[in-house]
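User: Let's play a game. I give you a shape written as tokens, and you guess the letters that built it. Ready? Here's round one.
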């Protein structure tokens, strides 16, 4: 159903990706000190991710796995949707842990695990693809970058000067 909507309205993926890039750092910065809210939002994002990747479909697969290497472009709706899928998860996890790189590595590993489950459980009606893993990892990298920007924004606007690198007396 979702894929049908995205094919009929391909601009939705571009608009969603742009909104995540523009709004993500500000929302993330606001969430830094709101750990419970961030955790709830992360939980919801993980439920959506799980539903979109592991809930069985009614498709019969002719072939289970595909080895292909395509870089997502704005016109490639499915690939961009796979990028988008991991951006909020890694943004939220990176802000929650305050470790965007750890969130990136965990998400890339989780994507690989999802593809492996899709490969070994054909009853899901989902095909595994290296393209999905690449797109998910690109989305995770974007989410980590947005989390890093969010943490820097929070640091800048919170009044917390952070660690002093140079003594105030040295100036």
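Assistant: Ready! My guess for every position:
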């Amino acid at each position: 159903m979702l894929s049908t909507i995205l094919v009929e309205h391909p601009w939705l993926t571009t608009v969603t990706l742009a909104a995540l890039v523009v709004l993500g750092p500000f929302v993330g910065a606001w969430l830094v000190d709101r750990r419970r809210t961030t955790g709830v939002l992360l939980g919801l994002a993980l439920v959506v991710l799980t539903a979109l990747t592991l809930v069985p479909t009614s498709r019969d697969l002719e072939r289970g796995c595909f080895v292909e290497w395509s870089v997502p472009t704005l016109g490639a709706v499915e690939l961009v949707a796979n990028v988008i899928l991991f951006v909020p998860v890694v943004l939220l996890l990176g802000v929650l842990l305050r470790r965007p790189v750890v969130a990136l590595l965990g998400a890339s590993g989780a994507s690989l695990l999802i593809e492996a489950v899709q490969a070994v459980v054909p009853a899901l009606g989902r095909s595994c693809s290296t393209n999905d893993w690449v797109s998910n990892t690109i989305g995770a990298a974007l989410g980590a970058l947005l989390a890093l920007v969010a943490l820097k924004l929070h640091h800048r606007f919170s009044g917390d000067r952070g660690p002093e690198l140079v003594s105030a007396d040295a100036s």
